[in-house]
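Sequence only, no structure available. Ideas?
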Amino acid sequence: MKTILTSLAIFIMGTCQAQDSASVLFIGNSYTSVNNLPLIVKDLTASLGDFLLYDFNTPGGTTFANHAANPINYTKINSQDWDYVILQAQSQEPSFPDSQVNSETIPPAMQLADSVYANYFCSEVLFYMTWGRENGDPQWGPISTFEGMNDRLRSAYLRMADSVQGSVSAVGSAWRYVRETYPTINLYAGDGSHPSYEGSYLAACTFYASIYRKSPVGATFIGSLDPTVAANLQGAAALTVLPIDSLELFNLHPKSELTQADFSYIVNGAMVDFTNESYKATSYSWDFGDLDNSTDESPSHTYVTDGVYTVILIATSPCDIDSIEMQITINTAGIPTEDLYNLKLKYLGNGMYDLSGFEDAAEIKLISMNGQELQSIETNEAAVQLDLSAYQYGVYIVQYNAAGHSGIVKIPYLND
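Reply:
I predicted one. Tokens follow.
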């Protein structure tokens, strides 16, 4: 039942979305040029009601080192503001030992990615995860089977994407799914390495799903394929790419949400060390939840009093803006965590707010952002109501002191 529901959801995604367009530059080799993969992607895209503008440079047998040394690639990269630049390595090189990949494959891939971002920061570097050879590569034990080679390619392309804040079109993963689910579909040309037309069509479906975040299921362009085979390949690509966990794994974001705010932290007494883990951002704004802030990339902050603080990070780039918030508990006095106040704020409408979570007598002050005390309340109740209707729209601060614990809560008073 789960598979049926997932398939239905992916089909609906593919049939109910508005038209999208994308500009794509393919930098690859014969795995891209065989069967004219870029044209298949364009025709498939058009049959689904979307638009693709593309260019390519695909000399046979090219490694990432060759790509990085080829001036044609930089001319094409700089020719316009690409939405996506697809990077594909020579078919074997990412499957080699990690030390070799780290020294020979990843550095030129990073050089290419840096050039892409230097031309247009909001381009997405999309790695073309290729597939294991039909019977593996006999030159090294770990890649001597299809499964072993495919796994190493998958791991290497994910590492490369992480190295450059890029994403992955998981053609190799879709390839494995088809081999296991539809063993009668031959994805290989006669050499057991290059794609047959079926293999190129599967790659095109996977690229469509990765670029547009839509299902290729229902595409009317099927080239020379049997309709049933084409439908199976469309479904395989959708099931590989579009589940939420897969989109996260392959770092596939909508063009309108390219910048992603994220951070981790370590608490050491009253000091917190923040590590910025944002994606595709150029500037940062931190709110530590105690009236202090920072624009450092990865700041440290010391809290004056124990409490539960909401930390907000806003990450900005020329592409867009994103924010994330997390609650951090500071407990230097060894007070049981459940005794630290974590107040809940609820907007009731018409400028009225309910502030709850008190367990003891509390002193509460409402303060404007310029430091003016507006209200002072003493209560023995678990909740109080605050009336902001007489004030201008903006952000206000509630400062509380209860049972020896103090802290603040920010109230964003916005227009109904």
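The chain is about 30% helix and 30% strand.
Hope that gets you unstuck.
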